[in-house]
Specification:
334 residues; Rossmann fold; seven-stranded mixed β-sheet; two-stranded antiparallel sheet; disordered N terminus; binds adenosine-5'-diphosphate; binds magnesium ion
């Protein structure tokens, strides 16, 4: 999909090269007390761009676990570090579109038109004003009817996949924000992507219902998309002061192991305020703990994509074990 040949539409500017020093400095580790200079060894590695477009499906059928927040903030983090990123808003609520400051009133061409009326993705994609290299295919309220309208259409599970494959743009990442259900919209996302990213809120019942999601992933892998696997689990709204949060985090790490990012996202007022300004936390308050943690999570995702595990202090190469572990994931979950 990524090609550097003739590009038309809203993405005509050249693929950005390395970012200037000021945006990189957002990711710099917080200096230790006493203000010692952070040595080169301890500064974080860059965010390498993937060789091919990574399509990541952000899914969890529970509402309010941080899917949308994670989608837009990871997307902005990656774009601010030289990646070209498309967010596909697949939730009729249109929260991702709102958070990216994208117009999505009823008359705007949207992902509904792509799924139901065979419109081209390039007709609906809009650039995100604040962040170079970031784009969004918005959702409008029409999408609420799509679950039902799709049922009677041909290739109803693979319409998004077809649209993405026909979209000849040089993208590094496509992040798909799913609705809080496992219906045809989420199935379309699972058929279109190779990677599933599951945000898990550090609350009681965090793992409840995940078994069903993982079984759906297995079903789609078995029948429609052999590449599909859960590549990434992100702990969200982590409150380090509570024992519950650390217990949930431990349980998730025990169950999923390597897929869980080392970085977890803290509960942060800045993160929850940003969408009401049509912004991600990366532009709303770049120095906040919420922005820095999403940036760090994005770095981990980027490094894992090139086979490097980064644990915050050192990087090491990983093998292919992750994909082999997938079958056992849903065991023991409801
Ligand atoms: N790390 C966080 N700290 C504080 N509030 C958060 C955080 N992550 C998400 N929220 C808030 O929690 C609510 C649900 O998040 P959202 O991303 O919309 O979940 P989902 O898309 O899974 O329904 C939103 O109001 C959002 O602003
Ligand atoms: Mg959402």
């Amino acid at each position: 999909m990524r090609s550097d040949a003739n590009i038309a539409g809203p993405m005509t500017d050249p693929v950005p090269g390395p970012r200037p020093a000021d945006s990189e400095s957002m990711a710099a580790p917080v200096p230790p007390p006493g203000g010692e200079v952070v040595s080169r060894e301890t500064s974080p590695p860059p965010m390498p761009r993937p060789e091919q477009t990574r399509v990541m499906v952000v899914a969890n059928q529970k509402g309010g676990v941080g899917k949308t927040t994670t989608t837009v903030n990871l997307a902005a983090s990656l774009a601010l570090h030289g990646n070209r990123v498309l967010v596909i808003d697949l939730d009729p609520q249109g929260n991702a579109s709102t958070a990216l400051g994208i117009d999505h009133h009823a008359d705007v061409p949207s992902i509904y038109d792509v799924l139901v009326d065979n419109r081209k993705l390039s007709d609906v994609v809009q650039p995100v004003v604040d962040v170079e290299g970031l784009f969004c295919a918005p959702a409008t309220i029409d999408l609420a009817g799509a679950e039902i309208e799709l049922v009677s259409l041909v290739a109803r599970e693979s319409r998004l996949d077809r649209a993405i494959k026909a979209y000849q743009q040089p993208l590094d990442y496509i992040l798909i924000d799913c609705p809080p259900s496992l219906g045809l919209l989420t199935v379309n996302a699972l058929v279109a992507g190779a990677e599933v990213l599951i945000p898990i809120q550090c609350e009681y019942y965090a793992l409840e219902g995940l078994g069903q999601l993982l079984r759906n992933v297995e079903l789609v892998r078995g029948h429609l998309n052999p590449e599909l696997h859960v590549s990434t689990i992100l702990l969200t709204m982590y409150d380090g002061r509570t024992r519950l949060a650390s217990q949930v985090a431990e349980e998730v790490r025990t169950h999923f192991g390597k897929e869980v990012l080392r970085t977890s996202i803290p509960r942060s007022v800045r993160i929850s305020e940003a969408p009401s300004y049509g912004q991600t936390v990366l532009t709303y308050d770049p120095g906040s703990s919420g922005a820095l943690s999403y940036l760090e999570a994005a770095r981990e995702i980027a490094l894992r994509g090139v086979g490097v595990h980064y644990d915050g202090s050192r990087a090491h190469t990983v093998g292919r074990q992750q994909q082999q572990d997938q079958h056992s994931m849903s065991e023991g979950l409801q």
